[in-house]
Specification:
Blueprint lengths: L1 E12 L29 E16 L4 E10 L32 E11 L4 E12 L2 E15 L4 E10 L3 E10 L2 E10 L4 H4 L6
Antiparallel strand pairs: 1-2, 2-3, 3-4, 4-5, 5-6, 6-7, 7-8, 8-9
């Protein structure tokens, strides 16, 4: 079992020279005092804490699996550039921090590895993630072929499916401890009326 964590700081900033449409008078002159956007903050700095755990186990000489759980933005730092003052008031305030919090993102993932024979292997995986009331489920299946046993080079290929969104064509290679991969998403959602089933690498 492995446990990990991450601590970081983030910030979002706006430049000093910014103007809003309602700040202009009929003559075209701009004055910040005319604008009701005084509740927009210049700088939103926040602390970010993430953590996770993964369990790995060997079932026998040919099979193993791992399953993990992670949570991002555990402390839900305030990152909004819009404050809580009333923009319709006569004199909007300029708060020092926005009130909107980063929603937590939860990820559950797992992988099963099976050696079919001395050359071929099977590696199905899944991932579920949820953030701000939205979720995503992704399934993938990869076949591996040990191309060069002496140099420990394995070629991988397979298919994936992100539910209600896209089919994936997967290609990769493992050289000792180095892994590289390439994926192409083929859009299958209602958005294909615009994408015409084209995806992206």
């Amino acid at each position: 079992m492995s446990i990990g964590g991450q601590y970081g700081k983030g910030s979002r900033k706006l430049g000093d020279d910014r103007r809003y449409e309602d700040g202009y008078d009929p003559s075209g002159q701009y004055s910040q005092s005319n604008s009701k956007e005084g509740n927009v903050v210049d700088d939103a700095s926040y602390t970010d804490i993430d953590g996770g755990v993964v369990l790995s186990a060997k079932l026998n000489k040919r099979m193993d699996f791992n399953i993990g759980f992670s949570m991002f933005h555990i402390n839900q730092g305030k990152y909004s550039l819009a404050g809580s003052s009333d923009p319709n008031g006569p004199t909007p305030t300029n708060p020092t921090a926005g009130s909107t919090k980063i929603p937590r993102r939860m990820i559950i993932h797992g992988q099963f590895n099976a050696a079919l024979d001395d050359r071929w292997s099977l590696n199905p995986t899944f991932q579920y993630q949820s953030m701000g009331g939205l979720d995503e489920i992704q399934l993938q299946g990869m076949l591996g072929y040990l191309f060069d046993p002496k140099k420990d080079i394995t070629l991988n290929f397979g298919l994936g499916y992100r539910m209600r969104d896209a089919v994936q064509a997967l290609l990769g290679m493992k050289y000792k401890d180095l892994r590289v991969g390439l994926a192409y998403d083929i859009n299958t959602s209602d958005f294909n009326a615009a994408s015409n089933y084209r995806g992206g690498f």
